[in-house]
Design goal:
The chain has six helices and no strands. It is mostly helical. The protein has a single domain, classed as N-(1-d-carboxylethyl)-l-norvaline Dehydrogenase, domain 2, CATH 1.10.1040.10. Helix 2 crosses helix 5.
Length: about 100
């Protein structure tokens, strides 16, 4: 799915995903500006796609653990519910 379509369908997920990622980074001593990251994500070209989307389209294994794993392992699934839900949705979509 192109970034524009993803923002249209799941735009309300951007802020919580960024909050979870920056929260995990902070636990490791890395301070990031969530507003700056969210602004960057919202301003990326609508036609762009993620590397994970390109991998799925090419039939390659997804790097879910490398991308979402550190957030979930650092915060735990109950403190990273949006990230955990996104991973589950991606895994379920891969079964179809």
């Amino acid at each position: 799915m192109a970034l524009g379509a993803a923002r249209e369908h799941r735009g309300d997920w951007i802020a919580p995903l960024v909050a979870e990622a920056t929260g995990a980074a902070l636990r490791h001593g890395v301070e990031l500006d969530p507003q700056q990251i969210e602004s960057m994500l919202r301003s990326m070209p609508a036609s762009g796609t993620s590397s994970m989307y390109k991998d799925r389209e090419a039939g390659h294994e997804l790097e879910l653990d490398a991308i979402a794993g550190p957030i979930i392992r650092t915060l735990g699934p109950t403190a990273a519910p949006t990230t955990a839900t996104a991973v589950l949705m991606i895994l379920e979509a891969g079964k179809n």
